[in-house]
């Protein structure tokens, strides 16, 4: 690593002020992506602003028909939250599938979605449930939050403060995980929401995306058979040492069927 200055503010205002005063700052929460990147000298921020101890970013609560997760809530917090488990079991189960024990006890939802890894689990939940991302400046619908590979709608210095997940009628998440990292080679979140049917896919493409054909089919018939014959085009899907594009396309249909079956109980 290169030398850097470390800051540990107690409030959001203090964090934002520091960000504006520093030459090339980065916010630090769980650090699962930023610190390895710095160790490889692929990033060299002048200042790290540790927001992991800001109370305003913590907590998981249920209010107004939604589960509101603070950006600093760790994956384990979401997985173990009684309120989340009762209101949106699929979200709690998804959080419990992330990485391993160590990752779940350090990684945060804010850090995960701000990084926007194409194989991360949370983007599928955000888009699948039609969530809203709140920042220190505005509210951003999940459908417009992930434009492309490792890209988000966040502006320079903008900080995620919470994510609100509307409670669905029924929902489930199924993924085919990488056996080493537990990242999703393909993950599918299916939700029957008050705003209609939603099917969100992570791991398969450069960023999370919806499958409208499956949503329309499930609106007519919420059953695994409704999506069984829907093939996903492999064009534009990821192809790497873990899985080829055509295999990922096949897995989308398989995981969608399993998610619908799980949602049906």
List keywords for this structure.
265 residues; alpha+beta; Uridine Diphospho-n-acetylenolpyruvylglucosamine Reductase, domain 2; Uridine Diphospho-n-acetylenolpyruvylglucosamine Reductase, domain 3; Enolase-like, domain 1; 3 domains; 5-stranded antiparallel β-sheet; 4-stranded antiparallel β-sheet; 11 helices; 12 strands
What's the number of extended β-strand segments?
12
The overall number of domains is: 3
The description of the largest β-sheet is: 5 strands, antiparallel
Indicate the low-confidence ranges by residue numbers. none
SSE class: alpha+beta
Helix-strand sequence: EHEHEEEHHHHHHEEEEEEEHHH
Report the mean per-residue pLDDT as an integer: 96
What does this 3D model show about the protein?
This protein is of the alpha+beta class and 265 residues long. It folds into 3 domains: 45 residues, Uridine Diphospho-n-acetylenolpyruvylglucosamine Reductase, domain 2, CATH 3.30.43; 111 residues, Uridine Diphospho-n-acetylenolpyruvylglucosamine Reductase, domain 3 (2-Layer Sandwich); 94 residues, CO dehydrogenase flavoprotein, C-terminal domain (Enolase-like, domain 1, 2-Layer Sandwich). It has 11 helices and 12 strands. The strands form 3 sheets. A 5-stranded antiparallel beta sheet has the order 4-5-8-6-7. Strands 9-10-11-12 form a 4-stranded antiparallel beta sheet, sandwiched between helices. Strands 1-3-2 form a 3-stranded parallel beta sheet, covered by helices on one side. The protein starts with a strand and ends with a helix. The mean pLDDT is 96.
